[in-house]
Structure formats: C-alpha cells, structure tokens
UniProtKB/TrEMBL annotation:
InterPro entries, A to Z: Epimerase_deHydtase, Lipid_A_modif_metabolic_enz, NAD(P)-bd_dom_sf
The species this protein was found in: Streptosporangium becharense
Name the record gives this protein: Nucleoside-diphosphate-sugar epimerase
Domain NAD-dependent epimerase/dehydratase residues, every copy: 4-226
Amino acid composition bias (Low complexity), ranges on this chain: 297-310
A Pfam family of this chain: Epimerase
Species lineage: Bacteria, Bacillati, Actinomycetota, Actinomycetes, Streptosporangiales
Signal sequence interval, chain numbering: none
Amino acid sequence: MSSIVTGSAGFIGRMLTRALIEAGERVVGIDRIPQPAAPGLTVLTADLLDGDERVHAALSGADVVYHLAGCPGVRDRRPGVARRRHRDNVLAGARVLAAVPPSVPLLVASSSSVYGGAHGGRPSRESDPLRPAGGYAESKVLLERLCAERIARGGTTTVVRPFTVAGEGQRPDMALSQWLAAAREGRPLRVLGSLDRTRDVTDVRQVARALADLAARGARGTVNIGTGRGHTLRALAAAVAETLGAEVSFAVEPAPPAEPGASLADTSRLRSLIGWAPETDLLDLVRRQAAASALPGPRAGEAARATAAGRSRRRGAVREPFAPSLLAKAT
C-alpha cells in the first residue's frame, strides 16, 4: 500500500510515518522541511501550494492520504500569523481535497480547539456546537467546512480532532516541552490560569495508531482522538519533577481567552469505529519525551549528571515520589 503523509516532518507526521513504514507500507512524505531519506520513505520537499507536479501526482495516485500539514500554534502571536494560518490551514487543505480522488480515504487533521474547551465538565462530542476561540481554531473550522463539502459529494473523508498530543518529538512551543526545558534549567514553570486546569493528554504513538486504524476503516465524518480522561496541570508538573528529579516552582499568569479551562474527549465514536481508544500513562509519556529531548553531545553528559545529582538530593530530602501536593507553590 502507498500512503501519503503531508506534514511528514512535523510532530505527529514523523510518528505516523514511522508507524506506517514499520507496518510494511510505502510512504511518500511531503513537507517544506527537508527530511532524510529512509527505507520505505520517499521524500518530497515541497510546498502544497506551489503547484509542484510531483505533489499532485502523489496525491492523485495514493491508496490513502493523511493530511497533517498546516500552521500550528494556538498561542502564536507573531506578525502575519493570520495570513499564514489561512494559507497553510485553509488554502493548502483545499488543494489537497481537490487533488485526492473521492474514493481514496483521506484523513484530515483538525483540532480539539474547535470546541473551545469542555463545557460544564462534559466531554466534547463530535456533534457539539463549535466554539472556536482564536484564529488557529477558526482556521480549523474553515478547513472542516471544506471537508464537509467533500463528504457531501461522496468523498471518503475523515476529519480527526486530536486532544493535547504529547510525547517524543513534541514541538518546543508546546507546554510540556517548555516545562521540561524550564525544569532542566531551574526556572519556574510558566502556568496559564491555574494548576487545576485539566487537559486530555494523548500519547503521540497512540494517535498515530488511531490514524492508521481509521484509514483502514474508511470512515466518513468527524472523530475525536483522545483518552476521555483529564489530567490536571498539577499532575503533569509532578510527572516532570519526578522524571527530572527536580523540585519545581511556578510562575502563574492569567490565561488568554483562547486557553480553555478544560479539554476532554468523548471517545464513543472512535471506539465504535476502531474498537479502542488511547490510554495515557502520564509518567511514562513524560519520561519518553524528556529522554528524546535530552541535549546532544558533551552537554548531554552535563545534563544527565545534573539530573542525577538533583534526583539524589531530592531523594535525600523526601523519601516518597514527588506528589502534586508538594508542587503547589507559585512564584
């Protein structure tokens, strides 16, 4: 089977590409960022909107297409971000939708941010009204509307809404990556709003597996990809502290409007389609991400020695593992 992964150099794209190759599939990875060639992987370094004939031929001749490319970053406030979001999330999405034949399974990555958070503590269902807060979520809603038009014309299209994906390879601008870097450097962890806010943290490995299973199913419509279980930011910070053997403190700031108080997936439809839903072992996830983001070269040895020394000092002071209640101080 030949699979296309757009955004193959991205966080989820890299994990999905690896999983597909390990399953014996031939993958064409399309991304603006150059990638090294690998067995089972054909790399196309191209922009989806540049009219590259190789890209069109790949999209029109694939057995399945995973469209993960886009402009990420809920909190991105750099100049021109609105234009980049429209170009990379909406216009590029429209180009892919037009190129892929209707009978070919096409999975398109949207975002749980279109819900605007869980309301009243209830998990977000695919049928819920959308309440996008901020330009990123709004661009994903526009992309979903294009997908709905393709589905209405008979296209085999699955819109996936992943919830707070974490794990090895996570982008450096995302919260867990920032917290690991801060804890390593002895800086306070930046918290938006409150440590009691919750997130449906989903393991990137299981997101990749769910994407492949949904493609095999040939489902149409919208599907959440999450665990259905919320983790507090306090628990996530405790996992960071235990992983690095570091005592952490916090710099708590007001949360901007685009930051929901909680996110939580209703996974009923996902389970009905593929027979399972992700489950996250938070400590294992944080340990994997920390190991993958360890500094290379000589500085890696320094970081490892500092981490071991911090763990030794902390174990001398506290006999049990880091508990969330020990991490509640704010600076």
